Amino acid sequence: MKKILSLDPAPLLLGFSFLALPFASMKIAFFGIPLYTPEIFLTGAFLAHLGAVWKRKKEFLWIPDQLFLLGLCLFGLGALLATFNTSLTLSAMGMLKSWFFYPFLAFFLAAFYGRDRVLRNVFFLAWFLAFSIVALGSLTFLFQGVLTYDGRLAGMYTSPNFLAMLLAPIPLLALSLPSLFSIKNFWRAILLGVLCVGTAASLIALFATHSYGAWGATLVSLVFLFLFQIKNFSRKSILVGATLSMLVLGGLLLSESDSEKWQSLVAFDERSSLSSRFMIWQSAQTILSDHWLLGIGPGQFQKKYLEYQSLFPPYLEWAVPEPHNLFLAVTLSTGIIGLLGFLVLIVQALSVFGRIVWRTNDSPERRGALLALSFLMLTLVGGLVDTPYFKNDLALTFFLVLGLGFSCQGGQAKQKISS
């Protein structure tokens, strides 16, 4: 505790940026430039970092992986080219700021300061606390019966799917955090109590979203985390994991068997959510065939989607900000260059995190990398039917967690960051 209280301002402000993620829709204008709440803390963290570099001749930047950096540059370049090619407006510049510039900055700050084990674990805990508060707040909507027209929980967000994507990592954190903190007795009991309350709230809220994509992604990533928590997992552990998964899946399906959404889905009703997604994907592919090189630019999908309506039967869903698929969304928003960069950074992150998990003995670095790897698995599986990136809190979370994952290549033994 003494060490945390004596930290430099930079990692403290970075920690507050995690806590501010639930308030990512709140903004304040500075000199005419709107900054969302987490961006304000990230700006402060960066300025404090610059001050520490100048005052104590501290290392300015740590490049955790050159190939990942290449992917990051291509991803950003694709977004820039797509924006300049389509609509260079203030709104478009704001999307570049919130979906690319600040997430990239968050990545480098998290990777730099996350090399200190204590800081990295505190950042993970701050992430858990932030969205546990979201889960608890969402339960008040549930208990008051404030739901969408089809009986789903959205909380303070515009879509149940957005809420589900934000809450889905909480069970992963709950399984990982007890092994990351070497605390005992009273403080450990407090930590376990907080984890139980936050996890229970998130699971109830996640269930109430009735977001099948988030359910499936959460289940897959939990099984993945469970199996790899034991480095040399046995056939018995695989059998236990598979059995538990089938029981959970069976329970979820049984609970949904009488719901209108499930009946519509299994009957492949022409107005089911799956039919709607097929129509959206078909429209997105048609748009992509006309704009495959540079894309249509970030935040432009709904406009193009409506323009292409004349080529299809009447749409089942009209308000579609993104195409319900991560890779379609990346390609449309950033073009082929951005997609290439995104694939490079994803593959390299999987490679680096997997290497840490598989080749190192049990340590805080291995457990941190495994958590980041499980989150990446959650994002990729969920990204098959949703778009868990093009929203400022989702984009920031994505790169903050990747930064913490890459920081596991370092560690407290190699360099003390906060002194």
Number of helices: 17
Distance N to C terminus? 15 Å
Low-confidence stretches: 1-5, 412-419
Instruction: Give the % helix.
Output: 55-70%
Mean pLDDT across residues: 86
**Largest sheet composition:** 2 strands, antiparallel
Strand order of the largest sheet: 1-2
Q: Helix/strand/pairing class, anyone?
A: mainly alpha
**N to C succession of SSEs:** HHEEHHHHHHHHHHHHHHH
- Envelope shape: globular
Descriptive notes:
- The chain is mainly alpha-helical.
- The chain has one domain (2-407).
- It has 17 helices and two strands.
- It has helices spanning 2-5, 9-19, 37-56, 66-86, 90-113, 117-143, 160-167, 170-180, 185-209, 212-228, 235-256, 260-266, 273-290, 301-307, 326-359, 364-382, 392-407, and strands spanning 27-30, 33-36.
- A two-stranded antiparallel ribbon has the order 1-2.
- Helix 4 runs antiparallel to helix 5 and helix 13 packs across helix 15.
- The longest helix is centred in the C-terminal third of the chain and has 34 residues, at 326-359.
- It is globular.
- Mean pLDDT is 86; it is low at 1-5 and 412-419.
